[in-house]
Request: fold
Amino acid sequence: MNGLNYILKRILQIIPVVFIISILIFLMLRAIPGDPARLVLGEKATIESIDAMREKLGLNESYLVQYGKFVKGIVSLDLGTSLTYQRPVIELLRSRVKITLMLTLISTFFSLLISFPLGYYAGKYKDSMFDQIIKSGALAAVSMPSFWIGLLLMILFGVKLRWLPVGGWGDTFIDQIRSLILPGLTMSLLTSALLIRNIRNSVVDISNMDYVDFARSKGISERAVKNRHILRNALISTVTLLLMRMAYMLGGSVIIETVFSLPGIGKLMVDSIFGRDYAVVQALVMLFAMIILLINLLTDIIYSFLDPRVKF
Reply:
């Protein structure tokens, strides 16, 4: 019951945050210079046609009326029609969110695959040659820009070896997975480097704790000590970092999607901002905000399972 009350309380706390975010999105987007009606019709459009388009788009109405329609659309999932693509916004999101979500999941998989074994063994064999190599590699991964790494991987695996496509989005599921491997690996390197350093430091600190020595003195196997005491406690800070990085990967996928020509929501966001496509930008920013809020809630819930000391 305490856990359910906590979840309900957190959900109620999300409501005013979403309300404030919606106001900021609405006002900041309209503060950007440029007339959406003129962008739709072109520079050679007449004053009469621009005024008619502004009337059609509802831009002549007061901000209060426009904001009311915006909130009503969010509640009813009627997000309007894109000015640029002349399609319902909900259809655009449905077709493109899938690509960005798949990219984020593949990047997360690569991050876990790389960081957990390397981070653990770097911490277990602290100050060894292996540890020094891992720390240097993690530092290099943090220092290099993602677009440059992506270009190197494209040249190596796409142009030279021809193992994987250098960009685009395949027609079949297998082709789509293959087209996400290089961008997923590119986006995972920074997260992997951060996770490696975090896991390594956590393992070093936890391995020196008294309860770990006490567990070994009781005759518990090294595997059990590793799984029950070291890794489980190391996960507490790692879960927060991983989930926050997932939120960042969802929102910051625009660079990777641009480099690899993936038609995801990151690319859609940039195109919509330059096109003053209010409906699309508002929907995307609200989507990102909701994802981050839900990830924060999920992080707190997972904490309670990893650390019994954490009480709702």
Observations:
- Residues 33 and 276 are 9 Å apart (CA to CA).
